[in-house]
Amino acid sequence: MNNSQKAQTISRCLQLATILEVSIQKPGNVGFESSFKATRVEHFLASAVAIGPTLQEAAFRGAKVAAGRLEVAKVGLGGLVRICSTEVASWQRGGNTILGTIMLLVPLAVAAGMTQKKDTGLDFSTLRRNIDVLVKSTSALDSVNLYEAVNIANPSGLGAAPDYDVSNPKSKERLLNENVGLFEVFKLAQSYDDICYEWVNNYPITFDLAYPYLKQELKQRPLNASVVHTFLKILSTRSDTFITRKSGKAEALKITREAKKVLQLGGLETAEGRKSLELFDKKLRASENKCNPGTTADLTAAALALATLNGYRP
Hints:
Elements: H1 3-23, H2 41-50, H3 52-66, H4 77-91, H5 99-114, E1 117-118, E2 121-122, H6 124-136, H7 140-153, H8 171-177, H9 182-189, H10 194-201, H11 204-220, H12 223-237, H13 241-247, H14 249-264, H15 271-285, H16 294-309
Antiparallel strand pairs: 1-2
Helix pairs in contact: 1-2, 1-3, 1-5, 1-16, 2-4, 3-4, 3-5, 4-5, 4-7, 5-6, 5-16, 7-8, 9-10, 11-12, 11-16, 12-14, 12-16, 13-14, 14-15
């Protein structure tokens, strides 16, 4: 397999993960059976299609790094995220759909391009080392491009940052003048945004919590139940930072406890669990999108990405 074929395969794996995540009905999230006022499942599906070429380019750049034909500091993670955000905005009219997922998948795509796949599957320890090198090599230009990506997607619930606020038009100029790389920006935000937390800490939620749980679930159950249970496992372990920003820490912790209860009752595997899940879903939706576990959905997509990169096919 040459580098172009490898990049195409990686892109398809990540697109498949994005499609599978939204295709499975999860509490409080958009799916085939539920929508938000302006955002429906077709907007997410169109977004998954839109990011394909850029994910392929990201993986190809990773392969060039591995071949010694591109410096890791010149990969341009921020620019790749910005292009994805631009493409998503041009291919659908449902507003922000998968910005958080894009921010997790772009480094994965590049790192996967840098990583040699073995007969036993993708070497995750090498993959993680490559991610770590990538995110720590980001520049001030990556920061500016990422800010532009956020402005294009215009996500709700960002809140005000203590420094370098993305809504402040002067922040981009400061980032360049003060030479603040994207890794440093995300270090400032990691306490209130789990996407940033993943970047800064080498994806511990994805690799150490979500994917191992999903992998075990897939050995025992169909994809639908496996993904729903993985989503609940993440939410029962990590309070969703999107909910925290929109509804406060106390409400987010309450939702975390309720997710844990649903899982303990059996989730989709028992009648009691299914009833509890239905009530949980209704409660989350009654909040007018203030209790949408959007970050948890992004992390679930990242776990699915590891599964597809490692050979899982539905």
